[in-house]
Amino acid sequence: MSEASDVAARPELMRTLMQSIVTFMNRIGMSMEDIEAEFHNCTRGALSSRTRTRKSPRNKLAYGCDTVAGAVLRAWHRNPQFLDTAARPLPLPMSGAKPSLTGLVHSQNRRADAKGVITSMLNAGLLKKHGKAAYLPTRESATVQLLDPLSVDHIAKAVIRLVETASRNVENSRGKVSLIERYAHVPDLKASDARAFAAFSRQQGQACLDTIEDWLESRQLKPLSQRSYASGNGVTAGVHIFAYLGEPILRKKRVARNPGKRRPTPAREARA
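Request: output the structure for the sequence above.
Response:
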């Protein structure tokens, strides 16, 4: 019998979850045969893991092109080594004498494939050419624009981190550290306000992330100028923010029974 047999999970909800993952895997180029094989491997691995101590994959998520790309952009905009006298990012050559773009990537993660990270950043539009042999960042933070290796890395990790956080919060462990996992939701935002919502949530989310990032960086084992994710005995930590919009739902018009009475709107749900 399943360990979670006493938990009532709606089959259609779980099916939608699985369909979203399968659709994503298929969209990035995996064949249905490969997807089925991976699900079979995951199922077999989950069953065998019950007989041994579970090893958390959280720290493995500290590596990868999306994580390194974000760190590179932050360092490029904050580390004096990579700034000019006006505190603007310096144009960097691909390699050669310091500072260089390859050196910047390795300063954030010694184990990173610098060429692969730079190629992903170029394809994602995070870098632009400056002159004949130098590069500049196009923006201060990495955002998902195209379905390329960097965004695939980012999307997969976002799902993993969400599931890990939610699972961690419901574990019965005396020493666990509960993490925030909440959302604000209304079921019937006016469609005409969709763009305004996108702009407002982006602005507020970025402000929140900037504050959290400053707090985290002030508590790292090494200062920004000496950073290397491959060293130290720290733990990975961070906050992920995203907004969502559903498709418009067409309903038949009907006369309200009590037109003068407004129903309450849920503004905060699923509080951890």
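The radius of gyration is 23 Å.
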